[in-house]
Amino acid sequence: MVTTIQQSIISNQNWSPTPLSKASTLSKKLNIDLWLKREDCTAIGSFKIRGALISISEYIKNQNSKTDKTGVCVASAGNFAISIATATKQFNIPTTVFVPNNATPSKIKKIKSTGATIHQKGDDFDESKFFAKEFSDTNNLTFLEDGVLEGMVSGSRTIAQEILQISHKWDALIVPIGNGSLIKGVGMEIKDQFPSMKIIGVIPSGSPAMWQALNDQPWDENKKPETTADGLAVRIPIQKITEEIKPFIDDLWLVKEKNILPALKSLKQYENIICEPSASICLAGIYENRYDLTGKKIVAIITGSDLKDEILEEAMNSKGLI
């Protein structure tokens, strides 16, 4: 449950609530009543700022009785780090961030602008997380892990609350799955109030470990993710999280990589939205399953807006999905 204090932390932000707008042109082309929850419209262009603000408020409360730690450390492909660093900056909390070597330059720039110390280390997110945990132990820092922090889940629940304030007559919500905190929070809130409403998770085919874990299949932890949706690139799923989110998921779509960037172009072309591939994957999944969704009222969460310049260029040079 989201507490009154947690709700007020989000509702007091000047970007809250984020827009929930109908994708009119795409709705007509797909024969679906498609709506977009615009988390790219938060202060940092990502839904993760919600959970970060709540998590850091909890951290400060706990530090009143625990003064042995000297700051926080996080690992992230970008958006989680930006969110935590933005929140900690408000309270002058020393923050160290580990990002993988292939992190988006615009995200690195945003992290640096907060004053956080940044280490670019590791070939993917999971390697960066290993180094971050090691660094935290050595330097007496509190390691904050995205998929594990309950504050991140509470932040995600506020997204669902805002959606339900507009209407509760949705047939399905389309939710990208990275580490699982987004779909856990959204799923908990939706299923608490409207159990019949479907929650559909989307996962990129170039990073299938979460799909395999959620389907009780083995995955290869040595296989590097190869996806343009870097925010959803997971090599080693957290078993505790996968077990926790299973009850909230009605369907899982493993979305073809070849459709993610063309979907990005279609969002720009028809709805004038520039989002990251980790968000355009929702439209790609909807397109692949469009005949099953005909006439349905659907919400897709546009999770963020940061992407590499070369990825945007590649997307704009593509044919477009629709």
Cα Rg: 18 Å
CATH class of the largest domain: Alpha Beta
Unreliable residue stretches: none
Helical residue percent?
A: 40-55%
User: Structural class of the helix and strand makeup?
Assistant: alpha/beta
* Strand percentage: 5-15%
How far do the termini sit from each other? 39 Å
Number of strands: 10
Polypeptide structure, described:
There is one protein chain. With 322 residues, this protein is of the alpha/beta class. The protein has two domains: 4-46 and 153-316, Rossmann fold (3-Layer(aba) Sandwich); 48-144, Rossmann fold (3-Layer(aba) Sandwich), CATH 3.40.50. Helix content is 44%, strand content 15%. The strands form two sheets. Strands 1-2-10-7-8-9 form a six-stranded mixed beta sheet, sandwiched between helices. It has a four-stranded parallel beta sheet with strand order 5-4-3-6, sandwiched between helices. It is globular.
Keywords:
322 residues; alpha/beta; Rossmann fold; 2 domains; 6-stranded mixed beta sheet; 4-stranded parallel beta sheet; 13 helices; 10 strands; 44% helix
Q: What secondary-structure arrangement, pairings included, does this model have?
A:
Blueprint: H1 4-11, E1 20-22, H2 24-30, E2 33-38, H3 48-63, E3 72-75, H4 79-89, E4 95-99, H5 105-113, E5 117-120, H6 125-139, E6 142-144, H7 150-166, E7 172-176, H8 181-193, E8 198-204, H9 209-214, H10 239-245, E9 251-255, H11 260-271, H12 277-288, E10 297-302, H13 309-316
Parallel strand pairs: 2-10, 3-4, 3-6, 4-5, 7-8, 7-10, 8-9
Antiparallel strand pairs: 1-2
Helix pairs in contact: 3-4, 3-7, 4-5, 7-8, 11-12, 11-13
